[in-house]
């Protein structure tokens, strides 16, 4: 029996037992579809997350007080807090900078009438929207005059507006931040996930937050935007040299501050997303192995049912390798057809999820389709090998006497 004839016999067997064949292939169908769907969702989620972060700008750097970390280990050094003079020096002396925003922040309870929410209060200066690519959607941002006068005005992030006002107009209303009344002068456009969830925060003048709310005499961070993404590394080196000189750090002494780049965050998120996609894809591949067990089970039943047929074929001259090839091909045909149906189901479900408007973003990966389909074929050969070998090793006399 040649390969063509073996395939024909296998297809005839599948058609003759449609329900059993479908149930046998079901594990393969689900496994292949699961791999394609999981990878599509993972790729879509990764792309969406990176786009949200990139909207904050890839030229953003954050200078924070604290020791530098190498290989996850913090250097042992006394921390000198950042001061407004540090921010002014960075703005004045480091080349390639577009804007600098000194910041103080802390968690506070924001309250409006009977509603309240826990949020992050940030005190900063007028360059903050430009540095952080944070856009005012309604109203206005606070002014230098209000900063100098320690005015109690604030701009609310999108999530805070939704929590406190449920879509009602809020400009001119008064919210209480840590018990103090603040007039809402503006609301921010939705940004999406990034450092500290910028949608769940309230902006107020630096002096007001620093002196009236949090009682701090130092900065908790300095935001710096470079003129371009290519200038980020140069700006980082300039800031490091400047702050080391201002903090009187000796040669060989580790930094008492750390600089984080948005580009590093994007890279970390991309790597984390890729790892998560591979992990979920690997879990989905396990279901293919389960489908392979189903194929092996049915093939063993098939060998038992066709024992006399095997005996007759051997009696008329069929060799062991002919019987082995016949049952292996049948197993492979089952897994290949199951794989094809799985690809159709996986692609179809991925497309429907992406177009459903339920917030799912999917990207169908050709690599995942090929990988899942090839893995299904390997599963069919691997799990069909034992039943095929059992049939090939069968004694023709014993097989002919089988009732």
Compute the number of helices.
13
In percent, how much strand structure appears in the residues? 15-25%
Structural class: alpha+beta
| Widest sheet: strand ordering | 4-5-10-7-9-8
**Chain-averaged pLDDT:** 84
Order of helices and strands: HHEEEHEEHEHEHEEEHEHEHHHHH
Distance between the termini: 25 Å
Helix-residue proportion: 55-70%
Major pleated sheet: 6 strands, mixed, barrel
- Shape call: elongated
Radius of gyration: 33 Å
Assembly of the depicted chains: single chain
Polypeptide structure, described:
By secondary structure, the protein is α+β, with helices and mostly antiparallel strands. It has 13 helices and twelve strands. The chain has helices at residues 3-16, 18-54, 84-93, 128-132, 144-148, 158-165, 206-213, 232-246, 262-305, 307-315, 320-355, 366-392, 396-401, and strands spanning 60-65, 69-70, 73-74, 97-112, 115-124, 136-139, 153-156, 174-177, 180-188, 201-205, 221-226, 257-261. The strands form two sheets. Strands 4-5-10-7-9-8 form a six-stranded mixed β-barrel. It has a two-stranded antiparallel sheet with strand order 2-3. A hairpin with a 2-residue loop joins strand 2 (69-70) and strand 3 (73-74). Helix 1 (3-16) crosses helix 11. The longest helix is centred in the C-terminal third of the chain and has 44 residues, at 262-305. The chain is elongated, with a radius of gyration of 33 Å. The model has no long low-confidence stretch (mean pLDDT 84).
């Amino acid at each position: 029996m040649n390969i063509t004839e073996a395939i024909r016999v296998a297809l005839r067997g599948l058609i003759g037992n449609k329900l059993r064949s479908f149930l046998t292939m079901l594990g393969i169908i689900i496994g292949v579809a699961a791999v394609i769907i999981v990878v599509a969702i993972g790729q879509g989620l990764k792309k969406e997350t990176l786009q949200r972060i990139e909207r904050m700008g890839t030229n953003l750097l954050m200078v924070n007080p604290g020791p530098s970390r190498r290989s996850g280990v913090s250097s042992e050094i006394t921390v000198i807090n950042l001061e407004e003079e540090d921010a002014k020096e960075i703005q004045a002396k480091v080349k390639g900078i577009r804007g600098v925003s000194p910041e103080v922040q802390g968690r506070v309870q924001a309250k409006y009438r009977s509603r309240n929410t826990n949020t992050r209060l940030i005190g900063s200066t007028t360059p903050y929207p430009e540095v952080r690519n944070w856009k005012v959607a309604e109203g206005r941002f606070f002014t230098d005059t209000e900063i100098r006068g320690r005015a109690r005005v604030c701009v609310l992030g999108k999530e805070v507006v939704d929590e406190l006002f449920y879509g009602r107009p809020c400009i001119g209303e008064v919210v209480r931040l840590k018990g103090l009344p603040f007039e809402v002068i503006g609301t921010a456009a939705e940004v999406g996930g990034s450092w500290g969830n910028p949608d769940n925060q309230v902006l107020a003048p630096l002096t007001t937050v620093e002196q009236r709310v949090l009682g701090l005499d130092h900065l908790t961070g300095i935001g710096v935007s470079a003129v371009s993404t290519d200038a980020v590394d140069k700006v980082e080196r300039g800031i490091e040299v400047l702050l080391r000189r201002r903090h009187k750090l000796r040669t060989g002494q580790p930094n008492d501050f750390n600089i984080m780049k948005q580009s590093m965050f994007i890279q970390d998120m991309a790597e984390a997303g890729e790892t998560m996609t591979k992990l979920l894809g690997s879990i989905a591949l396990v279901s293919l192995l389960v489908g392979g067990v189903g194929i092996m089970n049915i093939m063993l039943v098939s060998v038992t049912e066709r024992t006399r047929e095997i005996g007759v074929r051997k009696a008329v001259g069929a060799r062991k390798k002919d019987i082995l090839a016949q049952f292996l091909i049948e197993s492979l045909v089952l897994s290949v057809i199951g794989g094809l149906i799985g690809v159709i189901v996986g692609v179809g479900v991925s497309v429907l999820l992406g177009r459903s408007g339920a917030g799912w973003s999917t990207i169908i990966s050709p690599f995942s389709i090929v990988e899942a389909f090839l893995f299904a074929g390997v599963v069919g050969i691997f799990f069909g090998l034992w039943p095929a070998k059992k049939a090939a090793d069968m004694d023709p006399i014993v097989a002919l006497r089988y009732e």
